[in-house]
Predict the structure of HMA domain-containing protein.
Amino acid sequence: MVEKVDVTIRIEKSEQNRMDEIVDALKVSGLDDVESHKRFMIVNGSVNPDGLDELRKVKGVVSVHQDSAYKTQKR
């Protein structure tokens, strides 16, 4: 089973009135665990690594950024 990656998606500011429609399209494109933040025009969620390009194709999406997890080194 492929482990999903966390992503942050920026939405075009001019598309604010379509935010719900864009979130639905992102879900159809494979986005899970969705949290949308209309005030900031961003959506967070998780997706299979091979699904990143599908998210980028959604009309109104400015960018899809894979989140990084930082871990401290054990001494």
